[in-house]
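Appendix B, record 7
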Amino acid sequence: VLCNILGDFPSRLVGFGSFDYFTPLLGGMLLGIPSIIHEQNGNMGIVNRLFSKRVKVVASGSHSPQFPSGTNWVFTGNPIRKEILSNLGHAYEFPSDQKINVLIIGGSQGARIFDQIIPDAISGLPGELLQRLSIHQQVREENLSDVESIYQGLGVDYEIKPFYGNIPELMTKSQLIIARSGASSIAEIMAMGLPSILVPFAAASNDEQTINSKSLEKAGAAIVLGENILKPELMSEAIVSILGNPEKARQMAATSKSLGVADAAKRLGDLVDNPKDGAKN
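Structure tokens (predicted):
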């Protein structure tokens, strides 16, 4: 690695947290090359934690990170994909008498607990609200028939799939999103300005999804439900508290939008070009 660095001597080194970046960052440190790391979550993985106080600055994807004491960090946000960026002109709307769209996604493979809990939670909603719902839910392949049976029995409008290729489009039409709280998901939800119910993945190694969700919860842009205590009744209450109160839904959407960062990639690039002092943990 040192030979490669010396052969094409860089002015900066940037790491993004995986073990692939350990050796380049170490080589850069030994050669005195200014280095920066980007941390997408509210707390750090092993590699970023090792270098957090040895780099010029840490670019934080989180508004309120829990970084090691003495870390010099600047909030940049997390870069978001172009498909989301191209849909940012959409304004949040809560219809007075039309269908209310609810988008439920659980990550690339779906979330088994969503398949188990959310259909029962929908079953427990007041009839007037239930009749207005249009549900788009990502469901694991093995659970499709069970979930479909429940929604058919309720007579609710629904579409269930193991995978959606048009998530950005569905987000523009949604009044509520129920999701995990991975860093990229949080960034996209905020950029789109949606009220959300977030269920952090309990098995995440550093509990980063819980930390990621806290800034939205604290600001009033999301309701956070812990996976370990999640029950259909709690989910029903959360859904009703948002969709049963259009003004609250609009306020949550506005707050979510205010937290979003559409130009995170530019902010990160500018910080790489001109590392600066930021906040200190």
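Remarks on this record: The CA atoms of residues 134 and 157 lie 5 Å apart. The mean pLDDT is 92.
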